Amino acid sequence: MNIKDTILDTIIITIILTTLISRIITLPLNISIVSGNSMLPTLHPGDLVISTPANNLNNNDIIIWCNTISYCVIHRITNITNTHVITKGDNNPLPDPPIPINLVKYKVILTIPLTTWLPLTLLTTAYYAFTKRHKIIKIFTNTTNDPETIVLTIFLLIDLAFISFIPIHYFSAQSVIIKPSIELKSIQPSNNNILITYTLNNTKIISIPESTIHVNNETYETQTQILNNTILVYIPTKIYQKAYELNAEKITIHLKILLDKGYVIGNYTHYIEWKPLTITILNNSITIHNPNYAKITIYNITITYYTQNHLTKIENLPPITINPQNNYTLNIKTDKNTTAYIKFTYNLRGRTIIESKQI
User: What SS3 class is residue 22?
Assistant: First the structure.
């Protein structure tokens, strides 16, 4: 065996062993052939790709990942985390399912078009077969332990090697993915704010990029706070005030919730419980309490005084605004022979309410 034959045999053995072993263990260099159209126009069927071990991966890298020795995919990275990568064929409409990062074997560093490498390979194969024609005949006529014959026998297995290093398939590998879910658990008032609680499985709330409140046809932006699986929605006083003025009995909360595995858009209805003013009389004072979250104005306020059943005085007072969750106290001067009556009006839920009390 001359030096020229030895070098050629060594190259052939190296290529064959590389293509056969590179899927079992990670080698410094890997050779693969493209099949399918999922990476068009970047990669074409039959293109030869040279790749190295998958270190320092980044978005837009073209990688080869394998979930079995016989099943590998070459696609481009669109997203990467510490544990998973998401890939997509350049010619595919949708990305692949998340792939565990430990399945990524190689990163493509060089592409050789089919029209370049195939003619060279055919010429090399033809030359090798011609120079070894006597050895080929010997294989089929008698058994030998000659190293050159063994190399030639291995060379005849090149077709099997080609099959073993084709990495691309149309279908992505089936991955076991735990399906995330989010369900509404409760909506509860918290003072003048709203607590919306969810049941989360295999996901978590990241942020609330959109939060608005709708009163009839009017829209207001609002603030939120994430409390584990609960979202606290702040309802400004001006929203309750607008609902009171429009005689609205409900508001609609619109949220866009960003999760670590997607997002949810929710519209939640909160019914407002409008309560009548409460009146407390103690000695010569009357206290009016507003239990609502909107200010209410009482008007047409008159105080009528009677002495020994005779009308002695009528006092008209200007309108009085009672702030949300607040009291207003009127002190009325009377004596043991005088009786006073107070009368006032206010609006609630589109109705006019008239109150009249003896002091």
Answer: coil
Rounded Cα distance between 324 and 58, Å, is: 56
CB burial of residue 111 (10 Å; 0-12, 13-18, 19+) = middle
CB distance 34 to 170 below 8 Å? no
Task: Report the interhelical angle of 147-155 vs 3-21 (nearest 10°).
Answer: 40
| Residues found in the chain | 359
CA distances from 322 to 155, 291, 293, 329 (A): 97, 10, 11, 10
Tell me if the bond preceding 41 is cis, omega within 30° of 0: yes
For the beta sheet containing 84-88, the strands, ordered from the edge strand earlier in sequence to the opposite edge, are 30-33, 48-53, 104-112, 62-68, 71-80, 84-88, 99-100
Q: CA–CA separation, 166 vs 48, rounded Å?
A: 9
- Domains belonging to the chain, first-starting first, are 3-164 (2.10.109.10), 181-271 (2.60.40.1220), 278-358 (2.60.40.10)
What would the DSSP string read from start to end of 167-183?
Answer: ---SSPPP---PPPEEE
- Helices 114-131, 3-21: axis angle to 10 degrees equals 130
Residues of 14-49 as b/e, b for ≥16 C-beta within 10 angstroms? ebbebbeebbeeebeebbbbbbbbbbeebbbeebbb
Residue 332 tokens read as: 């009325």
- Give residue-wise pLDDT tens across range 181-216: 899 999 999 888 999 999 999 899 999 999 999 998
- Asked whether the whole model's pTM tops 0.70, one would answer no
**φ, ψ for residue 121, nearest 5 deg:** -65, -40
